[in-house]
Amino acid sequence: MKLLLTEDNRDLSAWLTRLLNQSGYAVEQAFSGEEADHLLRTQTYDAILLDLTLPLLSGQMLLRRLRSQNNGVPVLIISAQDSLQDIVEHLNLGADDYLAKPFDIQELEARLRSLLRRASGNANPTVSCGNLHYDSNSKIFRVRDRILQLTPREHAVLEALLRKVGKTVSKHDLADSLVILNDMVTPKALEVYIVRLRKKLEDSGVAIITLRGLGYMLSAVEP
């Protein structure tokens, strides 16, 4: 899952990015509202972590701009402004959730997982296809009762496919799911991960289908 973190405190931003990377999120940082606005015009994200007191363009103005453009990307505000009036105002402006600073990283991750589940239309933390099951809380894949042993990159690819099960996921979007710590992924490397996953998913009741020129799709298969 690819996140945009907008936070002008560089130490806090670095700390959050490191912890979220360790949890398997790809995080892109923006240190001003204008920088975030530019990224949102050129990139696609699964969610935004938005501070309100940003230089050049405030978090509130960025949120207003997003929603006026009918951009429905989920927004979790993280702010030291914690009055009831602030929370209600920004939820009414289109924020999906609000977390006051200082916060515990476990609460942030729990809120983020909940927000992403709602955005995907599935409030259940467990997502399934065939005999493949994924628990977004524990981040464990299972085939029936067997835990699937995956590398971090294999995990990221399979999660991206499973969250859009039955739909085509482009190679570009899959590569984006692997952009962690600015480590770029080549198309050839992506193909290697797909081959490895296919071997590990044998007898799982699912298949990764190649749609030439379009990307890949995860689908249940007949026994």
Automatic annotation (TrEMBL):
InterPro entries: CheY-like_superfamily, OmpR/PhoB-type_DNA-bd, Sig_transdc_resp-reg_C-effctor, Sig_transdc_resp-reg_receiver, WalR-like, WH-like_DNA-bd_sf
Domain Response regulatory: 2-116
SMART domains: REC (SM00448), Trans_reg_C (SM00862)
Record-annotated DNA-binding residue ranges: 124-220
4-aspartylphosphate: residues carrying this PTM: D51
Any Pfam family the entry gives: Response_reg
Keywords for the protein's UniProt record, in alphabetical order: DNA-binding, Phosphoprotein, Transcription, Transcription regulation
Name of the protein: Response regulator
Organism: Telluria antibiotica
